[in-house]
User: What shape does this take?
Amino acid sequence: MSAPVSVRIKPLSHYQGLTLPAYETPQSAGMDLRAAIPENEPVTIPPGEWRLIPVGIAIALPAGFEAQVRPRSGLAAKKGISCVNTPGTVDADYRGEIRCNLINHGKEDFVVKRGERIAQMIIAPVTQAIWEVATELDETQRGTGGFGSTGV
Assistant: This one.
């Protein structure tokens, strides 16, 4: 496991009373994000639809890092709930509220309630590429085969 990195977090006014994202076990890769919606205004996501759910925090990542917002495996396995753009990337220079774009792949309405753990966030290092334009690429055994070319 890499050394921890310090990340500044700003709980927004509608986050009041919720616990900060935290690792649920000592070796967890992701921290759970909670729905920061009003107590009396749950959000219903019908099957096949998606909703943008606020999580009530903004962060300041150090340069060279990103936050990846991913589905929670339990919600995906039990209810068919995922994130539309998974993983969603929070760039190091973004300072706005983090929101999760949840989609319901299940067969029943899914109701999001205040404080519910709806996604997970992973802090990861980023490498930026420098393009080297070439007229030829080195040969490999796989070559140009893709989309199942190595087997089912």
